[in-house]
């Protein structure tokens, strides 16, 4: 279902995550498995996957 709604990984695509910590943690792993750059423990503005 996630692949139906997320754009394909590209340099001009940013994924913004917000929610309960277990959900954000799971989505960080999922986005990495889909080909997005690995999310850092503390997000920076230039990250492809940014967690609030």
Automatic annotation (TrEMBL):
Gene3D superfamilies xrefs: Nucleotide-binding domain of ferredoxin-NADP reductase (FNR) module
Top-rank lineage group of the source organism: Eukaryota
InterPro entries membership: FNR_nucleotide-bd
Protein name: NADH-cytochrome b5 reductase
Gene this protein is translated from: CBR1
